[in-house]
């Protein structure tokens, strides 16, 4: 059976979503047309608005509708500490953990020479200027513990340490509720080198 | 075709679809191959495959199929991750970029594979690695069929003269040249070349060896610059400004 051109176009367009193949795209299109036309229009409008309005925050590079995002203008946050992350999803993860009250900087990637991504592409020059201008005293490097993430963290630490800024790297180790038997050797080695002395009474 | 437990290193990986990875691997007996790690980043597998699939780590991979991109069936660690720290990470990424740019797929390169592993080991353990990087670059040129002998004139076949001047040409290797016609940055003193041929890649011959290999590699890399070298340069410059 041949679809009408508009339906064919809709099915193709839906396939841009992650995890959606031709069959699921077809099912989604049929569902929207048969049962939920109002929902489909709301979706179309939401998509249009989001694409029009959402850009990067000029300070932290996270997604935001405002020039400067809510986290960056929040007066209750610690303005001396800044946490460097690879993606906006990482910001959400840290925010949901509720363990951090400082500011963020989102690289939107990591250093990866083979892909042609250098310091300028992930905004490191901008970050350096920001750290100096705003008098940041501590930078937390929370890039992923992959080879590229480590290279990025090292590049940043080398850039900041000579300026007398406190730089820390998030700890790598055994996950909570995990069992040592199933943790891979490198993680375990990291956990051992980064072990913490217990003080009396703790 | 099914290949089991093949020694390999990951050169580069890219996310693909939802939770898969496109892997550019350097294997011992099959050379550079590209594999698809289906669901490698899936959480239900504990993300264990993605955690194993890191550059520089000795791996054992199993794959099958005749397609250009073969599915990765299994992966195991064959050893500990060499502890590349600080600047050595950039050097390691440089090796990987060279291999990705210059190696053809499905071209077995066993000596080069062994040399790559040994060079990574040096990067992890030695305080100075310039000579090891040069040895790798020479080994890579040899493996590609672009090897040349620094002690002989590629045109005439005569031994290099201590006081002569030579320039590198991709087709011949080193060729005697006129000092007036060739800029000083493009020519090499005979004495330096004899030192390099004797295996001295450090100390007084270090700079010449670096320049010679850079020119030799550049002629095969084509127009596009090496991003890892650019990264290293920016890194050094950033350090100097402070």
Automatic annotation (TrEMBL), chain A:
Q: Which SUPFAM superfamilies does its entry note? A: Recombination protein RecR
What Pfam families does UniProt report for this protein, alphabetically? RecR_C, RecR_HhH, RecR_ZnF, Toprim_4
Instruction: Identify the keywords attached in UniProt to this record, alphabetized.
Output: DNA damage, DNA recombination, DNA repair, Metal-binding, Zinc, Zinc-finger
Q: Which domain of life is it from?
A: Bacteria
Instruction: Domain (Toprim): give its ranges.
Output: 80-175
Q: From which residue to which do the C4-type zinc fingers run?
A: 57-72
Query: What InterPro entries does the database record attribute to this sequence?
Result: DNA_Rcmb_RecR, Rcmb_RecR, Rcmb_RecR_Znf, TOPRIM_dom, TOPRIM_RecR
The UniProt record lists the keyword Zinc-finger: yes
Example GO molecular function term? zinc ion binding
Q: Which family does it belong to?
A: Belongs to the RecR family.
Q: What does this protein do?
A: May play a role in DNA repair. It seems to be involved in an RecBC-independent recombinational process of DNA repair. It may act with RecF and RecO.
**Any idea what this protein is called?**
Recombination protein RecR
Q: Which species is this UniProt entry from?
A: Haliea salexigens
């Amino acid at each position: 059976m041949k679809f009408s051109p508009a339906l064919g176009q809709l099915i193709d367009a839906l396939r841009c979503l992650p995890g959606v193949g031709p069959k699921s795209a077809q099912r989604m299109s049929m569902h929207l047309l048969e049962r939920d036309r109002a929902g489909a229009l709301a979706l179309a409008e939401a998509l249009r608005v989001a694409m029009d309005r959402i850009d990067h925050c000029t300070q932290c590079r996270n997604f935001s509708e405002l020039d400067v995002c809510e986290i960056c203008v929040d007066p209750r946050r610690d303005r001396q500490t800044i946490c460097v992350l690879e993606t906006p999803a990482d910001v959400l993860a840290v925010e949901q953990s509720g363990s951090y009250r400082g500011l963020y900087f989102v690289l939107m990637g990591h250093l990866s020479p083979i892909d042609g991504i250098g310091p300028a592409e992930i905004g490191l020059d901008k970050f350096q200027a920001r750290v100096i201008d705003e008098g940041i005293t501590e930078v937390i490097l929370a890039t992923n513990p992959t080879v590229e993430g480590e290279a990025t963290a090292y590049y940043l630490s080398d850039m900041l340490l000579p300026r007398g800024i406190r730089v820390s790297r998030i700890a790598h180790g055994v996950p909570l509720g995990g069992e040592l038997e199933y943790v891979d050797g490198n993680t375990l080695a990291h956990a051992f080198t980064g072990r913490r002395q217990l003080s009396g009474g703790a | 075709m099914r290949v089991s437990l093949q020694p390999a290193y990951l050169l580069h990986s890219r996310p693909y679809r939802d939770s898969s990875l496109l892997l550019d691997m350097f294997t011992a007996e099959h050379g550079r191959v590209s594999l698809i790690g289906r669901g490698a980043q899936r959480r239900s597998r504990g993300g264990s495959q993605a955690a194993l699939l890191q550059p520089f780590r000795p791996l054992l991979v199993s794959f099958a199929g005749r397609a250009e991109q073969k599915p990765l069936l299994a992966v195991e660690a064959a050893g500990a991750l060499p502890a590349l720290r600080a600047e050595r990470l950039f050097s390691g990424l440089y090796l990987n970029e060279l291999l990705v740019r210059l190696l053809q797929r499905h071209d077995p390169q066993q000596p080069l594979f062994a040399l790559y592993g040994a060079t990574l080991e040096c990067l992890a353990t030695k305080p100075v690695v310039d000579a090891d990087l040069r040895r790798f670059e020479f080994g890579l040129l040899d493996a590609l069929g672009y090897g040349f002998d620094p002690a002989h004139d590629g045109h005439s076949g005569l031994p290099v003269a201590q006081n002569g001047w030579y320039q590198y040409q991709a087709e011949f290797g080193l060729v005697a040249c006129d000092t007036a016609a060739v800029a000083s940055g493009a020519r090499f003193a005979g004495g330096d070349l004899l030192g390099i041929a004797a295996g001295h890649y450090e100390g007084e011959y270090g700079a010449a060896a670096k320049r010679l290999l850079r020119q030799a590699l550049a002629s095969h890399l084509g127009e596009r610059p090496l991003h890892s070298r650019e990264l290293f340069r920016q890194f050094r410059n950033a350090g100097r400004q402070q």
